[in-house]
Records
---
Amino acid sequence: MEKIKKVLYEYTTVIMLLIIFIFFSFSADGFLTLSNITTVLSQSSVLLLVSIGMCFVVISGGTDLSVAATYGLGGMVTVLCIQAGLPAPAAFLLAVLTGAIYGLINSFLILKVHITVWLTTLGTLFIGESIEKIVTKGGTPIYLSKVGGLFDYIGMGTLYSSQSESGVVTIKFSILLAIIVALIADFLLRKTVFGRNLYAAGLQRGAAKLAGVPVDKCVALAFVISGMCCSLGGIIGTSVLSSYIPVNGRYYLLDAIGTVFIGSTMHNRGFANIPGMLAGVLFFGLLTNGLNLLGVHFYWQNVVRGLLILLILAMDAYRRNRALSVVKNKK
Amino acid sequence: MDNKEKRPLSSIVIQYSGYIAFLGVVILFTMKAPVFLNPKNISNIFLQSSVLGIVSFGLTGIFIGGGDHVIRGGTDLSITSNMAVSAAIVAVMLNNGYHLLLGIGLALIVSLAIGAINAFAVVKLKMIPLLVTICMMYILQGVEKLITNNKVIPANSAILSFIANEEILFAPIAAWIFVIVALLVYLLYNSCSYGNHVSAIGGNELAARASGINVSLIVASTYLLAGVLAVISGILILARLSSLTPGVGDLMLFDVMLVSYLGAVFSKRFRPNIPGTFFGALFVGVLTNGFTMINVPSYWVYAIKGALILITVSITTMQRRRVL
Amino acid sequence: MGKSDYILEMLDISKEFPGVKALQNVTIQIKAGEVHGLVGENGAGKSTIMKILAGLYSNDEGQIIFDGEDVTKKLNARTVEQIGISFIHQERYVAPHLTVAEMLFLGIEKTKSPFKFMKRKEMIKAAEKMLSEKVGIKLSGNKLIGELTVGEQQLIQLCRALMNDPKVIVFDEPTAVLAKKETDRLFKIINQLKKEKGVIYISHYFGEILDLCDRVTVLRNGMKIDTVNACDMTINSLVTMMVGRDVLEQYPAKERNAGEVLLSIKGLTHKKYFKDLSFDIHRGEIVGITGLMGSGHDMVGISIYNNSEIMAGSIEFKGKKMTRISPQIAVKEKMGYLPDDRRGLGAIQAMSVKENITLACLKNIAKKGVISEKEENECADAQIQKLRIKTLNRNMQAGLLSGGNQQKVVLSRWLCASSELYILNQPTSGIDIGARAEIYSIIDRLAKDGAGILMITQDIPELYGMSDRVIVMYRGEKKLEIETKGNDISDQIIIASMGGIGDG
């Protein structure tokens, strides 16, 4: 009995996710089909990329509110370049570069001007969104006529497609791209000197500094990575829609915070981490999908989503509090 | 040990930088459009700042009691959604023939319940406020859409239009409500012992606890108070526009955060505070109003807001590191 | 129950935690009018029994009688002050942005009903008056707490405690952060207080205990060994009683030979804290540096490690002139710094022991930026064994280790990085005697293996017990530099730290 309790405590979040998965499998027609699951996966690429970016910044000790803006600016730069006739690879490169520069701006303000992370990224969020509005003269979307080639492929290209009784099973290129980025990110964070330094910088900056950790460089790199990941997400976003819709990134901002923090509940010490975040992204995707299949009205989805995440976080908090009080008493 | 050091001029300038910037902007606008300082326009500014200001007071209170930690510090991202839901409740009740006061009463109950849930999660479960209130925000966004069906809903009430249009001393009652609420909240947080307690908790929770203060109760109260203020703001929105537009809460969230943080620049100790938030809200109101007067498109205001945060806050942060 | 001599009695207190008998039938009795010392190693039960008194833990067995009344059931964190027992904790419980008056009256503000408006002017006047009367300092009631020194903040804590007119006051390691002058001031206050109240004084500084206390209770392994009269004891006998074994030599014998010059400082001037400082450190030698609060001695170490606030002078390390030193550069050049703020700046609490140990030498265990798990584990295990770090395993969270063991973790970090210069800032403050001895022998070994050590400390016996050479600073200047040569030079050190014979 004690062992079961222990397992329950350790894997609270995973169990919750499984429960939800099982629930949908039984109650929603068409949920547990290959075509459905692969569709959900393929559609999660943008959220995954934005979450990777957010993950780096959270590990470094902050939150990056400007991901919404870098997502938008990435898409904007892409579309403008394509419109101007530039080849897709060049457009992509410029978009990712924009994200990197944005990350540098953030880190400059945080590290050299010493503004707190929240406020800096809040400010750059505002400024980024207004740049979007200014360039599009008030926020009108830019529609691209048939582009084709790499531009279409990155967002809409399929790697594998087959017919099955339940529907079309597709695995899009975009999710593969996103997963590759995630794997690289995970490797960086868990196995490299940079990753170790970044965790140290985020946990106790002063102590890390004294230990010789190049804190400033690491935090700056985290923001640059975040900017690049988000602008890559923006590229994919515009490819999927063949258009650019300004100021559309705030949705991803909030979901990314959710996925990263749900992911941290799966780490035994509560550190933000990539594998947990992946599960979080999957969770969000499947949740929305399952609710859709159940015919739950769009408005109720927000409510259900919020409640579920709250429940998961609350259970995790409860678990941590209990563990903490046991330790405290021992001393 | 205690010597009154001579303050270098630069330090004094920085301390009053907020006010100086405020004055500078006002002068700038007046030069370009002299009608800016017209009493009617001034009262308009107060009116426009009222909704933003009142809900920001609530957030400011949470900031004061919440401490400084980037992720773990007190915050409430659901506050503007709370306001929107309150307004929606009142509007729908009005449209269904109920008396305004009944609608307000129901909105208050709901809002306090939301505040209580937030408070419980933060205080008792010791969850991270950022996360709790993001979830709550999701939930409320959904609730608002459910109530309003994502459409604009009219809200017609004699009392509401009275508040919005009737004037006392150049200004509509709504504007006066802003000033009165500001005054009351100021007294609460700066003159009452309650305010000292909140401030202490934000500075060092253990110290406050060791002084016998009921930390849980007081932190919880900041969330509840924010809920009440959100309801008041919601009513004012209805009064001003005689309707409720969907999504108004989401748009306002970051403005509210801007104003509450901006307030720190106006204080001696460079921490979030009520008078600072009051001036912050007016500042944003001045900007919005002034830019409209000189025909600058609204999205430039957006950019200015962003730059504002960064400039003024860099000053705040530099000052704080010096003091402490 | 008749009226007894004792103002506070903790009788037969027992407390058990899962797997650990923290207290077994411990009896402590405090008289009004005495200063009662409480000593014991960490884990002996001192903090447990005080937490029970403070209402933070509940005792399994036993009674607590205060002023004749059985309060065993009544004690909890919020009411203990009202009952009449006040605590001056080790941690500074102050909110830096409150004013002196606001802090002093926190929770008991002078207010005007019905809305409890604070009467600020009255509070400021009362605060200044109370500070002057009860603890004898002059402070403006409007000053921000963050602007005060640590000693002043502690006095505010004390004043606050006294405002409730407690009958018993507990001091928990108050002098760990104070300089001699402030300690003397505190003792004067305590001697005043004891005339009417009971004082419990917890400390690791046995010299103080014997100076200040009338009686001393010694705890070991959760049991009371004895309560003795201070005048009957010496430091050695007290130590023996506490650890249960003879600890004749606290400090390792100095059998070290100094080698070549490792660090050479000439005319070093700090923006604020000291000027024109010059001294050398050789390989294999331990140089101790001390002074009162405000002498600047505590800033010397960090200034060598990070010279951003240095305005003039030169630092030469391993024969190389160092123009710009930052922690990153210092680590690269093989310097190591042990900070005095252990939990904040020392070991990273949430990271594992292994991760903490390897933090400064990641480059050595990584190929092209990728960490080798095998090499990291080997490195960590080696250090854990070498320094005898008490931890369940290498992956245990560092924050769960005791203070002494965390200190060892940080030391091993520099060992792992093959540091050649160790700058140790208050290396044993607040650490119990068993762990201290181990740390001393580690430091001695480091020096014997060829490293140079700069030891910053206010513990004078430790200073001349460990150092080959001692530097004393006074008001930002070097006042004395002297070889210890195994002598007790504490007189010369103390006089120098106060400015020298015939000065001020």
---
Amino acid sequence: MSSQVQPMTPATPAVPASHAADTAPVISLEGLAVSLGGRPILQGLTASLTGRCIGLLGPNGAGKTTLLHTLLGFYPPNGGTARVCGRDIRHDLREVRALLGYMPENDAFISGMSGVRFVRLMAELAGVPKSQAIERAHEVLFYVGLGEARYRDVGSYSLGMKQLAKLAQALVHSPKVLFLDEPTNGLDPPARTRMLQLIRDIRDAGEVRVILSSHLLRDVEECCEEVLVLKNGRIATYSNLEEERRANRKFLELELRSETEGAAAAFAEEIEARGAELAAGSRQRLKLVLPESLGVRDLYELAAARSVQIRRLDYKKDSLEDIFLKAMEGGDDVRV
Amino acid sequence: MSVYEQTYKSYKGPLTPTWSRFLIIPRYAYEVVFRSKLFVGFFALCFALPFIGLILIYLKHNLSALQIFGTSAGEIAKELPINNSFFYYGQWYQGALAFLLVLFVGPALVAPDLRNNGLALYLSRPFSRTEYMLGKMSVLLILLSAITWVPGLILFSFQASLEKGWLANNLSIAGAILLGSWVWILFLSLLALAVSAWVKWKPVARITLMGLFFVLMGFGGTINQAMDVWWGMLFSAWHVIGSIWYSLFDMGVSDDLPPAGAAWIALTAGCLLSLWLLYRRIRAYEVVR
């Protein structure tokens, strides 16, 4: 790793011991700005991402694909720079590309080639010698589940098979970082499940860091440890899902009933005074995070003392959807 | 085999040197091109004239062999001068075949990659736009070399080996074969790639290439007639390359061809324009303004 590597961030316990040391940033964005056709697309992105699988979330047009394309060197930055595994995309583009595997969002293949020939060509272009490339092509096609169809023309593949072929060509040369742009686009539920299973498998093998760009929250939630949410070309929020999960911060949703309206309000004030964190909600419906010192039993006792009935009590985890929606409502320009 | 029975294994072996990777493209392209029997037949035909030239040179220097063929064939071979004219007309014949070969191979080089978004796959690897273009160009450069300057120089060397003193007097012919072939090869390759990059449909790309060679020739001729000028000939690639070859082979002066200096400028301009068009098109993704 070069001297330009960003300061290391603490490893998450969920990372297997063999990979725990590998916590240097995969992607470092340093005020990255990109304009296309005179229009600013990415504006001063600053972040340092370390996870094994990092999700790029955002609505359509947020700049997810542009960010990936900039990291791949397809678009030159107008300002700032970015590093992939410590290599600057402005100065070490060839080295950066040697580290990457890219699965594009749209249909992308070389026409008139069988699956195995296509993947073999891609391996050779990445530097794998001819004799090993053919072996790798067969292996990786079996791995993604295209073993039986590997001698068919890529142009005749179904959409799901084309997605798998794109994954195979991105993996064949064993990249250090894998960029997946909307990998489940257009897939039916079984194919989507298989694709996500493959992504998790690649992530868990620990040899490849995965950057997953998607607008599908469930895909990101199922695979990623970190999430960077983009909005209008800026970072709207960053969340370490692994830490969120580990902290197991549970939201309680309470539905109250009381004789007088003041009783419910007094109950809410009482629990807030005892350290509970009240989130949005009306007086009859509360969302709160309990402190260590306050248990559910205490809540019932306090409610009984105020003549308030707790009609319903639900645990609700702070889901990625909540994080995403909060980010969409909030302002821009978050630094990570 | 089920996907769930497989596990991800990385490749940890050696890598090929980066400078040599552009040659992967012609290797894959030839596998496709030589699958066509029509192309193989045509390619074999391209060596017919050099082969006949080789026989004529041999006969000219082998009296015993001449007698076997009888007097008339022997006289033809004996009287045939192996000089700059011999190689100049050979260059024309092979140059025209080179154009036909480009019509066959050229349009299929870049267009399918653009149509299927294949460029993003090439360029996401440690493989630059220049290497991509060099790789695609080498498909044509190697094939065209095989039918132009390589047989030309073989004939030249054969003649030089059979006639003492001939080499010293005709060394400039070797330079003319080499330089004349390479400028034509470069021009054809760049033009074919540029057309292939801008016209995504192969048959239309072929028609466009034909148009650039024949319609522009007609256009140039019309300008010459209407305005009583000579520079209309510069629109015709045939007149331009003809003038360059005429001067390189030291054939004298011709009123039917533009001046060599103007022809060189026109050819260079054509090459630069093609290169610029090609560079504009060879991108992983188009930026929509």
